[in-house]
Structure formats: structure tokens, C-alpha cells
Specification:
62% of the residues lie in helices and 0% in strands. The chain is mainly α and 112 residues long. It has a domain of 75 residues. α1 packs parallel to α5 and α4 runs antiparallel to α5. The radius of gyration is 20 Å and the shape is elongated. The two termini are 27 Å apart.
């Protein structure tokens, strides 16, 4: 199966260069050794809206926000897994061909 359109190799090369400039790591750049504080909300009120649930106690609202935060994290993890699988499928057209295109696709899915 081949792509129904041709994408110039130069565009893929620019993607590779950009990925090398903006490389980041979730542990060192976002988490930075911090732990989740179980006494705090995991999501801001504007996203959680747990405060609007008047039938919950303050402690239940806190717990509800934490459940929501973990749910968002798991959902993003599933989306990330899907993206990786889809990129592998798309990259098939370049396995034995345009290696620059293949590297750009792999980098886009692996954060490397």
C-alpha cells in the first residue's frame, strides 16, 4: 500500500530537526521529582467542576477530583498508545523507502 500523495522529504527533514530542538522528558521536565499530594485536588476547579456537586462533602469532592485526574491521565495514555500504533501503520510505506520520512514518523510517535 502506498500513500495516495507524495510528501517531499524536506518536510520530513524539518520535522526531525524540530523534534531534536524541542525534545523533552516527562519525568525531568514535568514531574521533576514531585509526588502527588493526596491532600490536594488533582485538577483545577474549572476543569473538574466537582464544586458544583452539592450533594458531595468537601472530602468527597476532593476524592472525586482525584479520580477525575487519574481518569484524564489514563485516557491520555490510551490516546498515546493509539497514536503510536497508527504511526506504525502509516510508516509501513517508508520501511524500505524514504528513511527520512520513516525517522520523522517514528520520532513523532516516540518523543525521541
Amino acid at each position: 500500500m502506498s500513500t495516495p500523495y507524495a510528501i517531499p522529504t524536506e518536510r520530513f527533514a524539518r520535522c526531525i530537526a524540530a523534534s531534536k530542538r524541542v525534545r523533552w522528558d516527562i519525568e525531568s521536565d514535568v514531574i521533576r521529582g514531585r509526588q502527588f499530594d493526596r491532600a490536594s485536588k488533582f485538577l483545577p476547579e474549572g476543569l473538574s467542576l466537582a464544586g458544583r456537586l452539592n450533594f458531595l462533602s468537601p472530602l468527597e469532592k476532593l476524592y472525586f477530583s482525584q479520580v477525575q485526574g487519574r481518569t484524564y491521565a489514563n485516557m491520555f495514555g490510551l490516546v498515546e498508545r493509539f497514536i503510536g500504533a497508527k504511526v506504525l501503520e502509516i510508516s509501513r510505506d517508508h520501511w524500505l523507502g524514504d528513511q527520512v520520512a520513516l525517522e520523522a514518523l517514528v520520532r513523532s510517535a516516540t518523543r525521541s
